[in-house]
Amino acid sequence: MAKSRARKRATAKKAAARKASGAQKAAGTQKHEGARQAGAPEAPARTSVGAPPTATGTTGSRRAPDAAPAEAEGSGSGTATQVAERRKTGQRPPRPERPAKAATRAAPPPAPGALAWVVTVGAVLLGVVALNNELNPYFGPRAAVLLVLAALGLPVLALRAWRSRLAWGARAAVAFLAVAAVAAALSPAPWVGFFGVDEVGTGWIFFVALAALWALGTDLGEAGAELLGRGLLLLALLTGGAIVLEVGGQGWSALGTFVTHFPGLQFTRGQPTGFAPNAVFAAQLLIGGLALLAWRSERSNPVAWWVMTAGLGAATYLSSERYGLLLIAGLAVWVLVVRRARAAAWFVAATGGGLLVGLAFQKLVQSGSSAHFRLVAAEGGNGTVGPRMREWTAALHAVAARPVVGIGPGQSAVAIVPYRPVPSLLRDGLFPDAHNFLVEVAVTTGLLGLGLFLAWLVPGLRHARGALLLYALVVLAGGLIEPLNITTTSLAFLALGAAAVGAVRAPPGAASGAPVPLPGWTVTAATAARVVLVLVALFAGITLMVGNTELHDGIVNSDSNALAAASRHLPMWSDAANALSDLANTDARSHPSANLVKVAVAWNHVAIAREPQDASAWARLGFNLQELGNLRAAEAAVNRSLALDPTIGTTYTTKALVLLRLDGVDAALHWAEGARRAGDVGAGFDPIIHCLQAHQGTTEARDQVAAACFGHVPAS
Questions:
Q1: Residue 320's CB: how many other CB atoms inside 10 A?
Q2: Cβ(630)–Cβ(593) below 8 Å
Q3: Is the dihedral of CA 590, 593, 594, 598 positive or negative?
Q4: What b-and-e string marks burial along 163-183, b requiring 16 or more CB atoms within 10 Å of the CB?
Q5: How many helices (H) and strands (E) does the chain have?
Q6: Which residue from 321, 319, 346 is spatially nearest to 332, judged by alpha carbons?
Q7: Which residues, in sequence order, are bridge partners of residue 515?
């Protein structure tokens, strides 16, 4: 009996529980149905982790078995009511709206902003713009463009150094600029240290521009970086087309007449340069374009890719630059490793076909020199490696002499010359810099500067990615054997910064894709700083172009007023002062006058004050001082010129003349024969030696021997 009562109580409890559950579900269904009719959104069903999937109705909850008959009945009743309503009114009731389908198309990529377009146009101009009314048609306008781009990037450099994933690299760049500024201030020629040599411009301001362009590249975004890559490819194609026109113009007179009047195409040498001041820089731009195309190499390439790749291959051959062939081989290896064999085969086929087209075109027009010929010529194929190895070996001694902050930007040639034997210099020529950007940094800013430079460069390479990284690598690879250049080196650092656009995002702990937070006032401050800096850069760039135009006009037209104006507009360089000295010296020869020679000497001192390391200014001073009869001072000036640059042939002639007038024929002949044995100091030096030998032991006056052997008549 007790067990029977217990079973009855358990059964009653279960029934009560089922009724309560059914009531709750019915209430929930009614509540949801009311909300649905009122237009309230449905809440998604919540399931526990690991729970099996369940069948869901319109409410998203599991349907209770005992509720099924009621729902079926309600459904049938609703259908009968709708039919009756339609019979009365003759209208079909509105159908419930179906939920909108989710969008299947991806959102279009963001378009490049105004900054990206400005930077891309500036990058192209940096490689093609030229003015034929300057002595160097490539320097003034490109330096102006570089200054404007640097002005846009300097505020970004400050922000990157303050707070970003690139902060430590940016801080190293700022510290490097500080060390370089100290090196420039302590250098033998501070003006050169800050501004660089005229028509080269690789001083402290150039280093500032490199850091600013790198930071500017990081501010372009993904779409802007893609646009910049297209601009750099366009620049490579324009350079290649200019080289083809130049080679064709050298062989076909009609084309040559047309091309010679085109701004920027100056082919006074057999080796084509295109829009670049030197063929080596044109080759760097071509190989950079091939790097962008190599990144796009696939198993199946479009026709445009084949045409562009073959065209740049042909232009590389016509440029006659030996290292271009080596870098093409390096790109082929990269494609083989990254894109596999078929893509590498297509890249090799396209570039190889282009090289053959270049060879055929060169043979057709019968002009220029081939890259293959220059690769195996000159010192048995050592024409590139030998002089550079001698330069780099001497650079080690220059670094050891000033190991902390170096000689100062733009002055590596002066630091290296004392450690190069004179015969070697006479054979190889004086390099404008170390022909290796790492060696150049070490010599000019010391080991401290080199360490900070690498602390900036290495993280920049580590954060970079994509086609622009490959572009920067191949252009900088050319910079390991060629001089710094305001076009190619600047574009390499701009591309390196643009290749790191993904690295300006927050550290891994931040929300995915969220930028590093900066205070709101930084946007206003950066914009204001950009406006001010761009205005300053425009003023400086225009002044530079005006000064270079005046310098050109003054030299070509022998216009002292134009040269004086150029000296005022370009107070950091010695070119205008040297030209004014030459003009006064020319007038003194036409109308012998000691006063005119004194004017020339005064301009010599101005030139030396601006550039104390200018060997040509010291040589001019030595010649003019001997004209005035100040022979000991003249000898000291000539010796200084030879110490700075022993490759200037006229300096040897001037010293022989000074020694003749100072110590007689024997002293002049002894020095001249020793200089002649040291190396080839000029074909015009042998007749002077023969003339001195003929007058040796005679009783003629020294001025008479000078007139006979040097054609020299002292100014009265």
A1: 24
A2: no
A3: negative
A4: ebbbeebbbbbbbbbebbbbb
A5: 29, 0
A6: 346
A7: 505
Q: Is 408 helix (H, G, I), strand (E, B) or coil?
A: coil
| Residue of 33, 34, 73 lying closest to 57 (CA atoms) | 33
Of 374, 438, 449, 361, nearest to 407 by C-alpha is: 449
| Sequence-ordered list of residues with C-beta below 8 angstroms from that of 538, at least 6 positions apart, any chain | 144, 147, 148
Q: HSE (CB half, 13 Å, CA atoms) of 702?
A: 16
474 contact partners, CB below 8 Å, separation of at least 6: 284, 287, 288, 290, 291, 327, 330, 331
Across 79-102, b (16+ Cβ under 10 Å) vs e yields eeeeeeeeeeeeeeeeeeeeeeee
Q: Is 67 within 8 Å of 25 (Cβ atoms)?
A: yes
Higher per-residue pLDDT: 330 or 382: 330
Q: Are 387 and 395 in contact (CB under 8 A)?
A: no
Using alpha carbons, select from 118, 109, 292, 107 the residue that is nearest to residue 220.
118
Q: Is 617:574 a contact under the CB 8 Å cutoff?
A: yes
CA–CA separation, 42 and 61 (whole Å): 11
CA-wise closest residue to 570 among 532, 537, 534, 607: 607
CA distance 116 to 249: 36
Mean pLDDT of 129-137: 85
More confident residue, 181 or 52: 181
What is the crossing angle of helices 139-162 and 204-217, to 10°? 60
Helix (H, G, I), strand (E, B) or coil at 505: strand
Cβ pair 286, 333 in contact under 8 A? no
One-letter amino acid at 139 equals: F
CA distance 256 to 248: 7
**What is the structure's pLDDT at 260?**
65
In this predicted model, what pLDDT tens digit does every residue of 412-428 receive, in sequence order? 999 999 999 888 888 88
